[in-house]
Amino acid sequence: MAKYVVRFARNAGLVILFVVAAVLGTATGVVFAFAGDLPQISALDDYAPSTITRVYGAHGNVVGEFAIQRRTVIRYQDISPTLRNAILAAEDDEFFQHFGLSIPHIVTAAFKDVVARRKAGGASTLTQQLARKLFLTDEKTWSRKIKEALLAIQIEKRYTKEEIFTMYCNQMYFGHGAYGVEAASRLYFAKSAKDLNLEEAALIAGILQGNARQSPYVNMEAALRRRNYTLERMADVGFIPRKEAEEAEKKPVLVRGDPSAQSPTIAPYFLEEVRKELEARYGAKQLYENGLTVQTALDLKLQDAANRALDEGLRRIDHLHGFRKPKRNILDERHAIESFKHSRWERPFAVNDIVPAVVTGTDPSVIHLRAGDYAVTIDKKGYAWTRKTSPSQLVRAGDLVDAKLLTIDTAAHTATAAIDQPPLVEGAVVVLDNHTGQIKTMVGGWSFERSKFNRATQALRQVGSAFKPFVYTTAIDRGYTPATMLQDSPVTFPGGAGSPPYSPHNYEGDFWGPITLRRALEHSRNVPAVRVMDALGPKQVISYARRFGLTAPLPPYLSIALGAAEETVLEMTSAYSVFPNQGVRMNPYAVLKVTDREGNVLEENRPEPKDAIRADTAYVMTQLLRGVVLRGTAVKAASIDWPIAGKTGTTEDFGDAWFIGFDPDITLAVWVGYDQRKPLGRGMAGAEAALPIWIDIFKSYIGDRKDPPTFEAPGNIVFVSVDKSTGDATDPAAPGAINEAFIAGTQPGSIRQ
């Protein structure tokens, strides 16, 4: 009997050895079969996942972002211990004990695959998940699983557990474009990963399994279920007491982030200019994947003021052309009024906000609307501008309209409003720093969503009388003075070959006779400007315009004096900044500095000064343009107690309206017009269409400051009191006396004069 037992044991041993050898041989064969096909793990030594390029404004605010994947890479110590434990409990509580694989989980999964004949999940460790996301695909095949296991073992051999966990937390997807725990924390809770509390950490960890499918923005029940599962697991493995888990499970899910993740920028046209510049210089891959840091001088507060002022100004002009029937009716689209939703309703409402609202009905004098969960009413005052007497003449149930909120009762969820409409007229705004050329504000149109065309940089528009300062700059440099007498009387100039004679006329249709250069500019008289251009020669004036940085075609015709040529808003703003900057033009630029993800400086731009005109000529012109505000076409701005100078501009058919003004530090330009040229309306000159917008923006720029800067006069400027009508020297106390600035030697009574 003993002999048979020994023989059986010997045979069993041989069988076991054979099985072990077979398994090892098979395993070795598998390793050899797949080893040559595996990626190089050493690539993780320089782990640098796609990260966000961020553009910052002057005061450290984020202007906007560029990214394929929204990710912020953080360190192990920046992940709160609570979040670490939540992820481990939900995904791999034995992470710090295993060698990259969980044998019990693999056996269980294999049993389900082979015996139960169904694909099983949940066997992958964090390391395996990382290997799959970095190097493989999510296909459920044996070959992928084998490669995943081999890669996980290699990763574990090469890197510490903390390094692997950190890479995992930075790599994984959490829905809505957010990659990594930092982006997820900001997306769902508007805070950093190091600041998450227990319930928040559990929700983030719970999302890992299903990405966006278990996002609270998509499925609140699924998000709550997964969060509570994570809390239960944290208690099961001893990370938190059971009582703490139970208390946390009773709390509601409170998200505070933005489900769109990438909130809209308030400077889309500016951001697009920056994007085009960076992509041309560094390429799309570096811009969208390598996490550049871009510093600009954009003033977000001033940008917001410009956005609001332009919107209000364009709507005001649009109202002059009457009310247009709403283009969209949700009932026609088979939406129910009660269940219709709009993305704007997800954000808070404030007085003066213009929000979309659905008409629920009308009565003889009131329009009833719904905006989110607010019941909104518009009475007669709210639609008086439409010049309609009955709400039924304006709207019908289901119409989607713009409503400007006048009052809000948050407790009762009611509001009163005025009806509005998207304006058809367009506009543009640019603000430059005179001393550096840095772009502080840029608005390229009423709505970037409606049109990506940047009217600040791409549109060539007739500048009208805004060109006259270049004519008079040439004149001052050629011996004219503010007191020089010009003729404002009918005149006809011979036309060129095959062209009729040219007879300029004034905006008002009258003539003032002899007039000082100052008065001619202040009141934007056309005929004197054309006469001066004829005396100086068009080519001479155009050569001066080029000094100011104007690059568009300028044919040598007398009509150029009245702004028949076309220029961009950016170039006109830059040109005007020469006057307060003592004759020096600073090339405008948007990007100050660019650094890579390691903090290395890739570029650092500095002001590029170019001498345009003499400092004394620039100062005299500044004083002349100051008069435009104090006594001339821009007198509406005189109410602002600040050193302001500038010039209005209007084309003959009221198709373009401008005001470009400056103080010693900034130059601000506003243009208004239609994309397809047509009149803005009778009387819509620069002073009526553009200047009110300019004033609103400039008041925001001043804010509550009480210390205005001053225009510094060069040493060779002398001041003489002159009669504003005749230009003759007079007593400072005499009626109509002006303290006029002259270049030394050109003042009344001097030898040169």
Concise overview:
By secondary structure, the chain is of the alpha+beta class. 35% of the residues lie in helices and 17% in strands.
User: What Rg, in angstroms, do the CA atoms define?
Assistant: 36 Å
CATH homologous superfamily annotation of the largest domain: DD-peptidase/beta-lactamase superfamily
Output the CATH class name of the largest domain.
Alpha Beta
Tally of discrete structural domains: 4
Number-wise, the strands total 25
Number of helical regions: 22
Rounded to the nearest angstrom, the distance between the terminal CA atoms is 140 Å
Summarize model confidence as the mean pLDDT.
89
CATH hierarchy: architecture of the largest domain: 3-Layer(aba) Sandwich
CATH fold description of the largest domain? Beta-lactamase
Helix content: 25-40%
Structural class: alpha+beta
Largest sheet: 5 strands, mixed
What is the approximate shape? Answer: elongated
Strand order of the largest sheet: 2-1-5-18-19
The low-confidence runs, each spanning 5 or more residues with pLDDT under 50, are: 19-36
Structure description:
The chain is an alpha+beta fold and about 750 residues long. It has 4 domains: about 1-35; about 80-250, Penicillin binding protein transpeptidase fold (Orthogonal Bundle); about 320-420, Beta Barrel (OB fold (Dihydrolipoamide Acetyltransferase, E2P)); about 425-725, 3-Layer(aba) Sandwich (Beta-lactamase). The strands form 8 sheets. Strands 2-1-5-18-19 form a 5-stranded mixed sheet. The protein has a 5-stranded mixed β-barrel with strand order 6-7-8-10-9. Strand 9 and strand 10 (about 415-420) form a beta hairpin. The protein is elongated and about 105 Å long. Residues about 20-35 have low confidence and may be disordered.
